[in-house]
Design goal:
single chain, about 90 residues, mainly alpha, elongated
């Protein structure tokens, strides 16, 4: 049996809200349902339901990702993901 409901008001960037609504709609969800899923998963995880880090992505990795987006050769082909990661980390 569901508990009593309550309302919540939050402030967010307009663009983030609009893009989120579009994303959730494509998943068959509305914003309320998506936020409820996030909150319930937070309760299950006893924290945020995803990793939060301060690690910054290396400029070399960003360059490689951009090259891949532009269909440029990124020193491949690689036989394994480990080989790719080794190349990216050098």
């Amino acid at each position: 049996m569901a508990g009593a409901t309550t309302s919540m008001t939050i402030r967010m960037d307009r663009t983030v809200k609009e893009e989120s609504q579009q994303l959730f709609k494509s998943l068959g969800l509305d914003m309320t349902t998506a936020i409820n899923i996030f909150l319930r998963q937070s309760l299950i995880a006893h924290g945020l339901p995803f990793s939060v880090t301060t690690h910054e992505t290396s400029p070399r990795l960003w360059k490689k990702l951009q090259e891949a987006e532009e269909d440029k050769d990124i020193h491949g082909p690689f036989q394994t993901v480990d080989e790719l990661m080794e190349d990216l980390n050098t």
